[in-house]
Amino acid sequence: MPELILTEAQWIAAAVAAKAADFVAWDNLRWTTHIGADGKPDGQTQALYSADVDKDAFVEDVPADIVTAVTGFAADTTAPLINYAGATRWEYEQAGVVVDLGGGSFVTVPTDREGRAALKQARDMLRDGELLDENDDVLTDMAVVIGTFAAVLNEAQATALLKESGKRVQALYSTHASVLSDIASGTITTEAQINAAFGGE
Questions:
Q1: 27: Cβ contacts below 8 Å, ≥ 6 apart
Q2: Separation of alpha carbons 110 and 121, rounded Å
Q3: So what's the pLDDT on residue 106?
Q4: Alpha-carbon distances of 30 from 5, 50, 86, 143, rounded to whole Å
Q5: CA distances from 29 to 25, 26, 141 (A)
Q6: Residue 51 C-beta-side C-alpha neighbours within 13 Å
Q7: Is 92 strand, coil or helix?
Q8: What is the DSSP letter of 21?
Q9: What is the mean pLDDT of residues 176-193?
Q10: Which residues are within 8 A (CB) of 28 and not within 5 positions of it... i.e. 6 or more apart?
Q11: N or C: where does the chain have the smaller number of CB atoms within 10 Å of the terminal CB?
Q12: How far is CA 185 from the centre of its chain?
């Protein structure tokens, strides 16, 4: 156990073992989300050591019961699938949703959290009469540019697009929950099956 980078299940098992072994040093650790090679959270947590703690010495002093508790999860094949499911949902959430505006016009509406928040804030300002032109007249429509999404919208149009964005996000989370359930039951055992589940959205 050269580094304390653990899945949630491993962390819980180690914490229980530490308490049973009265290894009080464990309680002095702080934990942070571990970032994978792709620069995104990978579903693991990593120990943070204070400046006065010798990390190598600390790891060497970890009782055998804790090491056993952690490595006992090494054969668990569901953790990578769970992490992959979360990453896949995140990728779809960043991609936006294509909405048919009618008359052969389509637009990709943001579904990521920042994009949706920006669109909602602009819609709310328009609704509340807080958007003005250069003559201080209240605007009834607004120009919106969020990432690759650009449009001139009135309040009703912005609200309709927000609803479509919300529907997409909720569908993704519903799929994510279903995939996690299928991983737990053993119905889903491969990344290809996870891709198929989300690709059907």
A1: 18
A2: 13
A3: 78
A4: 12, 9, 24, 45
A5: 7, 6, 53
A6: 0
A7: helix
A8: T
A9: 89
A10: 50, 53
A11: C
A12: 23
